[in-house]
Amino acid sequence: MKNIVLVSCSLLLGITFLFSAYTKLYPIELFEYTIVETGIFSWNSIPFVSRLLIGVEFLLGSLLLLNLYFSKKETLIFTALLLLFFTGYLIILLVKEGNEGNCGCFGDTLKLTPLESILKNIFSLALVYLLYKFHPGIKLRFQKWLFIALLLISLIAPYIFTPINMMIREQSKEETLNYELDLSALYDSSRIAKPSFDLMQGKRIIAFLSLTCPHCKLGAFKLHLMHKNNPALPIYFILNGDEEKLPAFFEESKSADMPYSFMTEKEGFVKCAGVRLPAILWVDNGRVIKKVKYKYLNQSEIETWLSQ
Questions:
Q1: Domains along the chain?
Q2: What is the per-residue pLDDT across 16-44, written as a single tens digit (0 to 9) for each?
């Protein structure tokens, strides 16, 4: 009975780690942006850090699932270290951002607050301790070669399933344009809420976002982080959708600090944004000069353009 309980604990931990790694992959941007939010890693390093952490989770999850701990129980030691690392990261997130929104530990599949995830990690650490103390694990004949195979697969797989964008400029990622943006509807005399400044003056990043679009929420999250790093960035949201869904949109994208206006289809939302959302436009004195997908936004590039 004791062995059954211990093997079951190892299986539970293994499944949890594998599920956590898998859900972080889709969309991986949510995990990346949440880590960037803590200020520990930069935009340049985060694509590699995120995939490394996911790969390590895949590896440890696979070994725990097999009850394969090796001679000095290295699997359990590294599992405890990874849990402590994630717990430290969650504590930083909790202190800096509060116990709000999704910590990203299970991607967008299972939403946990930082505190809930910390409690989950404490429970997992207790299971690791029990396994380290009482469970010898399973010895396999070819475990060394199995470990090498799992290591290679775990570290390579995240790059295969979610390739890193190396900022290669392609038409599908960035469009160079030159046309007038018509936002006159936002200043119509019949509107109660109007922008407090002229969006057609100067250089601006104007993002057209739908309140129900998951990619728009990720785009808003990334733009919020950029604005947080540099509050001088002239970023403005133009939103479409039921205003009752605005609190949920802001909670998931953590972008309640961003200036915004609503625009209906009748007022020209689709005409301005196009059919693919989010539409993030670089606007210079009312003329759209570029449209960039949120995944390929680069803060330093925006800052260079604004300073020219």
A1: 2-161 (no CATH), 174-307 (3.40.30.10)
A2: 999 999 999 988 888 888 888 877 788 88
